[in-house]
Amino acid sequence: SSLTQSIEALAPHASTVAVLNDYQPSPEPSQIAKGTATSGAHLNLVCSGLKPNAGSTYAAAQVVLGALNKAVAGAVADARADHVKNVTLVDVSGAFAGHGICTAQPWAFSGEPVSDTTVAADAERILAAKTCSGTSVLHGEAVCASLDASAQAAERDLQDYVWRAAHPTADGQRALAAAVERQLRGRV
User: Which member of 48, 83, 95, 160 lies 3.0 to 4.6 Å from 37 by CB, making a disulfide possible if both were Cys?
Assistant: First the structure.
């Protein structure tokens, strides 16, 4: 409903309101390129996690994309039903076909390469805190609290390497712009 309200608020001030649905950043399992999970002494956390779960991840991503795009289409339909005539749904759902994360030529970020030593050090901090909390009687709560703080920092560090995964790269932005231009050509 908030998307419908936004469309209706913009409509009087624009000749065309283009509403984009979402693209699929997850590749089909067969499209995942070899070598995207590791490179030299670096690890890509996103691709490392995706490869062994590619089929189920892709299936789940399709369900999420379908639901999201159904909601976006519904908002556009609701705005049209409320007499907004200048709204256009732009379908970009297939814009990244063959170029999802962890493919040979991704148009969505796959995560940042992380050195093996960094991953090991962060994992060590996280495991130390879990071990301590399981045996806090032996170590004392102050020691475990310190390790917990270190583990939380390690988790934030690891998240920093994957924060922009699935967001468009420059090539992805160009692909989205081309899809919008193709679909709006002659309408504006």
Answer: 48
